[in-house]
Amino acid sequence: MKSPATPTSWPSRPIPQTFSSRKDGILTLHGDPRKRHALLYRGSMDTMINLDAPEHPQLRREYMPYFTPPCLRGVTEAVRPEAGRLLNEIPPNNFVHAISKLEVAFTPSGQA
What we know:
Distance between the termini: 64 Å
Order of helices and strands: HHHH
Number of helices: 4
Helix content: 25-40%
Radius of gyration: 22 Å
Strand content: under 5%
Low-confidence stretches: 1-10
Structural class: mainly alpha
Largest sheet: none
Number of strands: 0
């Protein structure tokens, strides 16, 4: 009986018991520090996927109510008519150009 193939590229080190986005996780491939844009890099690192406890669970609890089925149904009900209206205003012979010119701002409260 043959033994299963051993992965050679990933993971190159033991998998930790507790995953961390900061250490040996998603942030291990963030590029050459000399080539980073100071503001853009910082902004991309301060996202929920890159956070560990205690920040990640705190944000998750804070935003979970906005991802419940009733809340998402409400967003769908608010967005669908506006999307339909915008699509109906696009001339059929100029779809790509018209879409590229759209500026749409949507917030759950309906205020742009």
